[in-house]
Design goal:
Helix content is 7%, strand content 48%. By secondary structure, the chain is mostly beta strands. The protein has one domain: Hcp1-like (Pnp Oxidase, Chain A, Roll). Strands 1, 2, 3, 6, 7, 8, 9 and 10 form an 8-stranded antiparallel beta sheet that branches. A two-stranded antiparallel ribbon has the order 4-5.
């Protein structure tokens, strides 16, 4: 009998900026790629419309983690001040034995939004920062 591969767990990942590990992140959101579709209606053809693949688009990537340093704030502050520095971001997914099984390469990313979770004097939760990055595209490494 052939053994079926187990799906990968989504909590075993690390994030690198320009090939340097930048500490732990709680969440990575927005790993997505979509092909735009253009339609064409042919005269006299009422049963269907032609669909053609157009360009690929990529949603913004969002990284979330507990607020521990001002590195991400600093990146976004520089961009806010007009000094945009693009970075290559790599998300590495690992299996249960911590072997690399998948790698996403995000090209030319720069921060476009920085957000902190709400400050709440009645809560004992960790303060979380969230940084959203625009980028040129995603490739599998």
């Amino acid at each position: 009998m052939r053994k079926t591969a187990d799906p990968y767990m989504n909590f075993r990942f690390v994030v690198e900026f320009d090939h340097v590990l930048w500490g732990g992140f709680n969440k990575v959101k927005g790993i997505s790629r979509e092909i735009k579709v253009e339609t064409y209606h042919e005269g006299g053809q009422n049963e269907f419309e032609h669909k053609f693949a157009s360009q690929a688009t990529y949603g913004n990537l969002t990284l979330e983690r507990g607020l521990v340093s001002d590195r991400l704030w600093g990146l976004q502050q520089e961009a806010s001040d007009g000094s945009v520095t693009r970075k290559d971001i790599t998300i590495v997914l690992r299996d249960g034995r911590m072997n690399e099984v998948w790698r996403w390469l995000i090209d030319g990313a720069f921060p476009v939004k920085w957000t902190a979770s709400d400050l709440d004097g009645n809560s004992a939760q960790v303060l979380v920062e969230s940084v959203e990055f625009a980028h040129r595209g995603i490739r599998k490494g």
